[in-house]
Amino acid sequence: MAKTKTKQRRYRFSFGPWNIHEGADPFGPDVRKSVTFARKLKVYKKLGFAGVQFHDDDAVPDLNNLSHRTILKRAAALGRTLKNNGLVAEFVAPRLWEDPRTIDGGYTSNSLACRRYAIERSLTTIDIAHEIGARQIVLWLAREGTYIRESKNARLAHEWLLKAINKMLNHHPRIRILIEPKPNEPMDHAYIPTIGHAIALAYMTDDPDRVGGLIETAHALLAGLDPSDEMAFSHHHKKLWSVHLNDQNGLKFDQDKNFGANNLRQAFNQVRVLEEGGFGQNGEMVGLDVKTMRTQKQAKNTAHLASSKRFFELLLQKVRTFNRKKEAELIRERDYEGLERLVITHLLGTK
Prior knowledge:
Elements: E1 13-15, H1 37-47, E2 51-55, H2 56-59, H3 68-84, E3 88-93, H4 112-132, E4 136-140, E5 145-146, H5 154-171, E6 176-180, E7 189-190, H6 195-203, E8 211-216, H7 217-222, H8 227-236, E9 240-245, H9 264-276, E10 286-288, H10 303-320, H11 324-332, H12 336-348
Helix pairs in contact: 3-4, 4-5, 8-9, 9-10, 11-12
């Protein structure tokens, strides 16, 4: 009898409009021209991406100066544009790190007025997500932390953060909150630095089933942790709802290098965890949060997105063709030297 082939899962990919950028950094100005949002949308399908990641003001620019009615109207128009381009919105994230009212944090600011602003803007973000067809809200808690620990009461700050998330959950019955942890930058000390902290917070909310996580490769590395282990931990809790794959050259600033460009073996293990855990079966997308090098010329300002997607696909084939029988044998024999050789030679395409 002929063996039936197992149908292999196809992954869907996403990125945000900020991943096509002008190349400015803290030490220098723009080196490329701005690309309009409409032109960015046109390259999604061309590059093989299905999902668009949004900040709230990516979806509705200048929203702080618009009426709520106008915000909803413009968001609805964006939803139609996405549909006409064959795209879907993966998530919307409130941008709570650029407004003057978030200098000392949003949800954890020492100012009651600033905390109220952060919550109101987050509720508006949920309304925008609803209009463009996104169910997920991502919270990158950029300024929820301190520059010096004595400046805030950390216990109270976590209480404020929990209350803010509960208000978001109660604002809309279907929305899901994805916490994206990061240990530092822009704050010196972040309150929710790892996915373990995020999941602990999730279990304390009014509806833990609607609070999960988004793990970014570079953020895990900045915390001195292995991204694949962080993903596996989140998978175990059924709370890995999105990823930002990229790479990082050591404990520096958040570099957002091409996925797999710095550590191919770490990238292999991230893909392996996603594949073995069934990531994508419930609609999850593989998000790529990568930045092109500052030296890249205008004509090739999306090469990093195409490359990172291709690296994922090549590593996926490495995961699917890995000799699991030999792996199991080496584990039984506790021959971890042999197992390491098996992994490395497989990645190098030799024996």
